[in-house]
Input
Amino acid sequence: MLLVLGLTLFSLSPSRATEVSYDKGQLLINGEPRILLSGSIHYPRSTVEMWPDLIQKAKEGGLDTIETYVFWNAHEPHRREYNFKGNLDLVRFLKTVQEAGLYAILRIGPYACAEWNYGGFPVWLHNLPGVKFRTDNQVFKDEMQNFTTLIVDMIKKEKLLAPQGGPIILTQIENEYGNIMGPYGEEGQRYIQWCAKMAESQNTGIPWLMCQQENAPQPMINTCNGFYCDWNFKPNNPKSPKMWTENWTGWFIGWGLPFHQRAAEDVAFAVAHFFQSGGVLQNYYMYHGGTNFGRTSGGPYITTSYDYDAPLDEYGLLNQPKWGHLKRLHEVIKSAEKILVQQLVTHKDIESNVVLSTFINNSTGNSICFLSNVNNNKDVIVDLQNNGKYFLPAWSVSILVNCNKEVYNTAKVSTQISLKTKKPSNVELSWVWKAEPLKDTLKGMGTFTATKLLEQKATTIDASDYQWYMTRVDIDASFPKNATLRVNTTGHVLHVYVNKKRIGSDWRSGGGFVFEKPVNLKKGVNLISLLSVTVGLTNYGSFFDLVPSGIVGGPVQLIGSGNVTKDISLNEWSYKIGLNGENKQFYGDNLSRKNKWTSEGLPINRPMTWYKTTFKAPLGRNPVVIDMQGMSKGHAWINGHSLGRFWPTMIAQAPKGYSCSDTCDYRGNYHDHKCFSNCGNPSQRWYHVPRSFLSDEDNTLVLFDEMGGNPTQVSFQTVIVGKTCGNAYEGNTLELSCQDGQTISAIEFASFGDPQGKCGSFKKGSCDATNTLSVLETACVGKESCLINVLEANFGSNSCSLNTPKRLAVQAIC
Output
């Protein structure tokens, strides 16, 4: 009996209580064992208006659960002052998940990591007397418990926990502590015990998770994170279900680094292998990565885009073929759910790295088989005895009904590929400008002083990327006028002025470097003004909270000929937090007040300059981006909404020993240095403008540029799916579709036989069916989507030999 392929989703009634428990390695929903497919969507990395569409596309992609972190520093930016508005409306996000009929996993942490600024911790926490993060420290534990309790009480009040009829079936405390806990010693051991007891005391009525925590105290469920999670991971309690809280679908991008791409074949391989090894819940990190709006990206040096090569791209469009290839896998796994949850399985080693796992339905005798080949480049022919011989590609998993009918192979992608392009809009931009006011800072006038170089987090409390360090130096006749200024900084970027003249700038991706430039001094008082800049605070590692920022301690020195050195580190330093333009909110000014902005003599490549323009929103519904080509480094705002940091002059280069390529072999273990692309181009050139940020009337774009840019090169563009391609072997069904209401306008290429090439460069092979093009035009042109049964009888006669594995290749225009 063949299994019916289909996705079974349970609608969640807000009035119906759901019991969530676990035992004997099973996750039980209302007493029934379940297999769950989940995906991470972080509510602050998109907008309220985007949430329904993202969640619906996740559901259509075969997910039944949405996972998110809770971001402490976003919700409590100042101690005991809370923000749950706009895209920080956690309750609204969870209710949107529930309205879609999906479950939710809430990772309260409250440490997140997530490439988020400071790992999600508020910087005011760092400044509390006596505090030590993530260890047995009472100050820290009191604050952590206060925030955790705040979140739990909030979701209880809104009846969002499963036993209350809500969507939340699992909650998480801490995050990946096991990876870094060694240096914390006994205090770390006591801390993790305290975390478990504190979490349990919240009385949520649902299980708690601790990911990457082999010694997670009971009843915490320890879970796995990484690119793969199979036989090497087992829960530390036989009662606990095997869960994978982060299957990394790609990787984040750093300024100066290339894109990371993880092939759909490899992600599918990892998922199938996980369920073959007894997994019951798998979560994609990320399913939609989104955008690091504002100053939320961590790092340092993590880009504004958090696309992550996820199944839904930064703008919420389907990332094909990954989305569709995984959707097919989800359908197959769900169709086999009632067999898989029984855990009646035998594993047989066929040969080295080839395993056949047979899951039996105890009541019907039907089976579902997972056949895996973990060899990097060795295809194998597997003798299935009574079921014949079967070809299994390298680095793939096949799923077979009753061990004799293939319903899915991770290496065979029969899903369309979407080729997205940026389409220039007809928006014309006319710029006005103003200089960043520097009169006070170049005169050394700050808001407070100290006779030492202070740490930047301690002074700014992360209210701004920018902090001025200013001092006066008295130079007598004995000291050379031609000297070198040397600044040791732990910051990420430094801009230097001496006697009101700009000396230069420097930066390092990891933070921490020595700025050294010649300066001309004068006899008497000299003014030194240093602007230290952070580009996201460190978010990961043991004691990451103690990583310094700014010019803390220096030294700052003036060095004359003969190495005559004048150390000015212990001078009286004057400090100013933020830019004057930030403090005066230039980004929020109304353009009608034109007297404050200059339209004449638009400066090009002028450091420390603000630019502003008005524009009409691009027509249509396609996602909007700004092409920042021409600008250097700075920050962008639309109608007062922060789009984040831009830095298009930071050109992508592969790390030493690696290179970029247009192609990538998906076979073999993926890692964060594999499958690089985009070398020689800006690490990020386009910046997402959510449609909800735009109005139907005039809109305002404000750019602040630190190092000198050319705003006349800036343009608005829309992201469209220009072409879509399909590639499916005989016996499969191929779906072609355009996105967001577009229709298929033409079929550029169609061949059934042995077509060659790839999407964008298909060509006919040695054999081809005569009617293929006309069949595709009739089935697809003028429609948003079409289904094609890839059968020889549908395409007419062909000249292919009987031994040729025939497939259909199609390229369509949307």
About this structure: Residues 421-434+583-648+684-718 form a domain with the Jelly Rolls fold (CATH 2.60.120.260).
